[in-house]
Design brief:
The complex is a heterodimer of chains A (about 350) and B (about 270).
Chain A lengths: L12 H4 L6 H21 L2 H26 L7 H18 L4 H20 L7 H21 L1 H4 L5 E3 L4 E2 L2 E2 L3 H23 L2 H11 L1 H6 L4 H27 L1 E3 L5 H14 L4 H25 L6 H26 L3 H14 L6
Antiparallel strand pairs in A: 1-4, 2-3
Helix pairs in contact in A: 3-8, 3-9, 3-11, 3-12, 3-13, 4-5, 4-6, 4-11, 5-11, 8-11, 9-11, 12-13, 13-14, 13-15
Chain B lengths: L10 E12 L2 E12 L3 E5 L6 H8 L7 E6 L2 E2 L5 H7 L1 E3 L12 H8 L8 H6 L2 H20 L15 H14 L4 E5 L7 H17 L3 E5 L3 H7 L2 E6 L2 E6 L1 H6 L1 H16 L1
Parallel strand pairs in B: 3-8, 3-9, 6-7, 7-8
Antiparallel strand pairs in B: 1-2, 1-4, 4-5, 9-10
Helix pairs in contact in B: 3-6
Classes of the chains: A mainly alpha (about 350), B alpha/beta (about 270).
Bound molecules: adenosine-5'-triphosphate and magnesium ion (MG).
Chain lengths: ~350, ~270
């Protein structure tokens, strides 16, 4: 899927403005689609599919967060809380009103968007560190409210059991069946984000990030546009929360605490700020990291220490690797994995005629 | 003052007794001026005279503390910058303010923001109207890219361009909005002779071929006297002279301000 431009000329603006202007890229997309939707479910068993499911869920959240942080230049440390808003909204609608997934998913997104917009209101006045603190506060406030309102959280344990999604009368009961459900949502989310970022609204996000004053002089309503960015971003977070809830079969605030917000920030930083592709890389990377660490530690760690201590070490080790990687990327490659990928791609871009 | 050379009839922009204070600094005080439809109107004056501040008030970035500004008969004294842009006023900045992460093409597309209207949902789907809108505006932008000879650079990130080219892209972004009043804050500052000549030609072409009214701030006297229909001279926040280039050149207050401004600084 290297974008080779040699020997191909675009003849209309429409062709030039396509998501995949080059035929090679289009074939590559078809190939990726075939692997994701045909090969993977055929060849992989439930365990591996459940990992890919986790990645698909993370992709939606990471793309959403990147729209706000990477493209619009605003910060949110409260995204996990927006996810929990989506999760509990969907869980309540599914259990109390028996609503199907095609209503609970957008409803969870919409409710999270509403809360996200409220949290975004201070962004007109405050920036950077102060906005970070405001969204951090939102994280705790939302968590507290959900936890202390039984009618939202479903009682003492603050968790609601989520019915399985039903697709044309068929219950999606296992990971292999959930796979299609989650993957389709992830694909819609990614394509939608790519569309958004190449048109009027997405450009105005970037304009605000690059030059807020010029953006305003050019006619962008900065306040409204920032709120749209918060809205879109937390809609994605909400949908991500709903997906996770269907995946787990339970809505529980413990899955949406500060550390999860930080996980998602790590995804967009390591993946690449302001890049949809980077968000996908970041989501894969951060989701796979603990799994790979566990695998390695379990294979080699038992040589040095006993199993009981190992579980403890794995948990700590994950945090260390995690922190180290964020620092490494911030220092060495602030544009993240997406940039590394681009470097490789550019090398082959006009191959074999580099000059 | 009553000379009508180059004007297409009617007052485009009317500034009446405009004043702006920053703390104790009186940046602009009691400035009145009429910019005629279709003319090139130059604002000159020593550093710190208040020229940029006046431009900032016209584009809605600041609101005048006193006085008023009317554009095509509408009072825009308290109108916000984004609404003023929608009325047909576009500008460039003294210190380049491009969207550096965007390509030249996207910067110009951005200039057309006020003329486009796709919302979140239709952009998300990129179907029908949203897609047609993008393509239609792309065509207009390509005309401007061709006019400004930026064809080879359309996919280059604007932040990576040389200074002179960035100035040209900024002009392009302002033109993309198809403004009826174009404000230029020192469009030729920091350019070499050849770049200046190019820029002068673009400004004249825009004025003559598209009929755009232009108000510009410029320090290069040769350029100002050559291309403007009217010149306004400011010093220490006040308007000290106005007229055709010839009238202004002959005005002894202007000569004093320019020669005397160094004295002021020594005294102050
Ligand atoms: N935002 C601001 N806050 C405080 N003072 C300001 C501000 N903007 C301008 N000033 C002051 O107002 C006065 C006029 O500034 P202005 O930028 O309008 O001058 P200018 O004529 O454009 O000068 P130059 O030729 O150097 O660009 C200066 O004394 C400047 O320091
Ligand atoms: Mg100035």
């Amino acid at each position: 899927m290297f974008h080779r431009e040699s020997g191909y000329f675009k003849t209309t603006y429409q062709a030039d403005m396509g998501l995949y202007p080059l035929p090679v890229a289009r074939y590559a997309m078809v190939a990726i689609g075939a692997v994701l939707f045909i090969l993977c479910p055929l060849l992989l068993d439930g365990y591996y599919l459940s990992i890919i499911n986790l990645v698909a869920i993370a992709v939606v959240g990471a793309v959403g967060l990147n729209i706000l942080v990477g493209f619009t230049g605003q910060i949110s440390i409260g995204h996990a809380a927006f996810m929990s808003v989506g999760a509990y909204t969907a869980a309540n609608l599914a259990t109390k009103l028996d609503l199907p997934f095609w209503l609970t998913v957008p409803a969870g997104g919409a409710m999270a968007a509403l809360i996200g917009i409220l949290v975004g209101i201070p962004s007109l006045r405050i920036k950077g560190l102060y906005l970070a603190i405001a969204t951090l506060a939102a994280q705790f406030i939302i968590e507290w409210i959900i936890n202390h309102t039984p009618s939202i959280s479903g009682g003492v344990a603050a968790s609601i059991e989520m019915p399985r999604p039903v697709f044309f009368g068929k219950e999606l009961a296992n990971q292999a069946e959930l796979y299609y459900f989650l993957m389709v949502i992830a694909v819609i989310a990614v394509v939608g984000a790519l569309n958004l970022m190449r048109s009027r609204i997405g450009r105005s996000f970037i304009a605000i990030r690059d030059q807020e004053i010029a953006a305003e002089i050019i006619g962008i309503n900065v306040f409204k546009t920032k709120l749209i960015a918060f809205g879109v971003s937390s809609f994605y977070a909400g949908v991500c929360g709903v997906m996770y809830t269907y995946y787990l079969g339970i809505a529980n605030y413990e899955n949406f605490q500060l550390i999860t917000s930080v996980d998602y920030l790590a995804m967009v930083i390591i993946g690449g700020l302001g890049s949809i592709l980077g968000s996908i890389f970041g989501a894969i990377f951060i989701t796979m990291l603990p799994i790979v660490i566990r695998l390695l530690m379990e294979s080699f760690g038992s040589i040095f220490i006993d199993d009981a201590a190992l579980a403890q070490v794995i948990a700590q080790f994950r945090l260390i690797v995690f922190g180290g990687l964020i620092i490494l990327f911030l220092v060495v490659e602030p544009d993240g994995l997406a940039k590394l990928w681009q470097n490789i791609r550019n090398y082959f871009r006009f191959w074999p005629f580099s000059y | 003052m009553n000379d009508t050379a180059g004007s297409g009839g009617g007052v485009k922009l009317k500034i009446q007794g405009a004043a702006k204070n920053f703390g104790g600094v009186r940046a602009v005080s009691n400035v009145s001026a009429d910019v005629q439809e279709g003319e090139i109107f130059a604002i000159i004056g020593p550093n710190g005279a208040g020229k940029t501040t006046l431009l900032n008030m016209i584009s809605g970035f600041y609101h005048p503390d006193e006085g008023s500004i009317h554009f095509e008969g509408h009072d825009i004294s308290t109108t916000g910058p984004s609404e003023i842009a929608a009325l047909g006023i576009a500008r460039t900045f003294q210190n380049i303010a491009l969207f550096r992460g965007m390509t030249v093409l996207d910067n110009l597309m951005m200039g057309r923001h006020v003329l486009m209207k796709s919302g979140v949902l239709s952009s998300f789907l990129y179907w029908g109207p949203a897609r047609r809108e993008e393509v239609a505006h792309r065509e207009k932008v390509e005309q401007i890219i061709e006019f400004l000879k930026l064809t080879d650079l359309r996919k280059t990130p604007s932040g990576a361009l040389a200074y002179g080219l960035q100035k040209r892209v900024e002009l392009g972004r302002a033109l993309a909005a198809e403004p009826s009043l174009l404000l230029l804050d020192e469009p030729m500052a920091g350019m070499n002779q050849e770049e200046k000549e190019d820029m002068v030609r673009y400004v004249l072409d825009v004025n003559q071929e598209w009929g755009t009214t232009i108000a510009l701030i410029e320090h290069d006297m040769g350029v100002v006297m050559d291309i403007s229909d009217h010149v306004m001279v400011m010093d220490m926040g006040e308007k000290i002279s106005q007229g055709t280039p010839d009238e202004v050149r002959a005005d002894h207050r202007v000569i004093e301000a320019y020669l005397g401004s160094t004295d002021h600084k020594e005294v102050a």
